[in-house]
Amino acid sequence: MRKTHGCTVANLPAEIAHLLEEIQAKDRVVQDCRSQAASRDGSIQKFVKLNGVSQVNPKEELYTKTILSHYDKAHTFQEEKIGLADRAAILLDRQIKRLDLKIRDLQNEGAIAIDPQLPSLLNNNSTLNSRLPPLLTSG
Asked: Which of 34, 35, 30 lies closest to 76, judged by CA?
C-alpha cells in the first residue's frame, strides 16, 4: 500500500483511484468468499433434502468449518474496505478544506470577490455546510 500523507491536488485523483481499485479488489475477494460459502451451504442443504435430517452428513463438519472460514475472511476484507474508504474520505476532506482556505485567503487579499453564496466548509451559514457531515480532523 502506498502512503497518502503528502497528497496534493495534482495527485489526488490518482490516490483516490488507487484506493478505489484496492476496494474493488477486496470486494471481489468478499464476493468469492460469499460464493464459496453459499456453495458449501448448498451442498449441505442438498444432502439433507436427499437423505433427511436423521442421516449424518459425513462432510457437514468440514463444510461448516469452511463456511465459517469464508465468512471470517469476508468480514476481514470488509473491515479493510471500510478503512480504505475512510482514508479516501479523509484525503478528499483535507483537499476541500485546503481549497476553502485558499479561496478565503484570495478573498482576504482582494484577488477574488467575497461571495456569501459561495459554498464553503469554513462558513457555518453555508447551505453546503448544512448538507455535509462535519470535517474530519485527524491528521
From this structure: 30
